[in-house]
Amino acid sequence: MTQNIAIHQDEVAGKVALVTGAASGIGRAIALMLHARGAKVVAEDIDGSVEALARPGLVPVVADITQDGAAEHAVAVAVDQFGRLDILVNNAGIIINKLVVDMTRADWERIQAVNATAAFLHCREAVKAMIPQKSGAIVNIASYASYFAFPTIAAYTASKGALAQLTRTLALEAIGHGIRVNAIGVGDVLTNILDDVVEDGPAFLAEHGQGAPIGRAAQPEEIAEIVAFMASDRASFMVGAVVMADGGMTVTAG
Ligand code: NAD
Q1: pLDDT tens digit sequence for 199-234
Q2: What CATH number does the domain located at 2-245 have?
Q3: Of ligand 1's atoms, which has the minimum distance to the CA of residue 95?
Q4: Is 144 designated active site?
Q5: Which sequence spans correspond to the domains of the chain?
Q6: Is 21 a pocket residue for ligand 1 (Cβ < 6 Å)?
Q7: From the CB of 92, is ligand 1 less than 6 Å away?
């Protein structure tokens, strides 16, 4: 998959992108694909390993996206280093597997803070930078859990439902300024997101993905492809959409 990342070489040429959660998994694939296709990229992550992505036209920022001032700083880096901000990808996310009866308030609030509140703060600051330009694109990484549920993921489903509704509402507020806001309802992808909650996260996702009609989990680049399209001018008529990319998981009745 990775050898194909430059197919649409000019897809986002000349644009400046900010990607959260860019140190690993889907966010890393997004940052590298947007960069390979001509964008300047600010890659933000709490994990210092994001520094390894540094290269001409790609600037890492190590930050906890939930902290006051983090969104302002990340947008300022884009503007200071590259002169503008055209694309925001709210990708960073965390999950916890706990029954509601076992969940602490701190568990709940941390999931909302990363998956929903930080996305709101980054949207707000990005839109402020984009309004004077009269253009921009925001892509939020939602989930099939924006709509569907199973036991132990209440905090996650609530946060991803919030992200989908943030997407739709902001889309209505922003389109008059030429800014498109959309989201992707991602299915199982082979990443390390479950590493803190199950023994072998990628193996769990691989097995869970077999339950989708497509019969497998995705590679991160398969999601990055959709982000690159939705962030580009090729997606000029997409506004407030939450596009499913889940191997058919949310279509099947059983
Ligand atoms: P991942 O764990 O590989 O990557 C998430 C990244 O976010 C990590 O690099 C992590 O350090 C970063 N991050 C977490 N908290 C942060 C914080 N407070 N500040 C800054 N960075 C922070 O996971 P992934 O699977 O690539 O997840 C990316 C997105 O895709 C998430 O929003 C996730 O909910 C969504 N998603 C993933 C799947 C899947 O099966 N992997 C399915 C549906 C949706």
Answers
A1: 999 999 999 999 999 999 999 999 999 999 999 999
A2: 3.40.50.720
A3: 34
A4: no
A5: 2-245
A6: yes
A7: yes
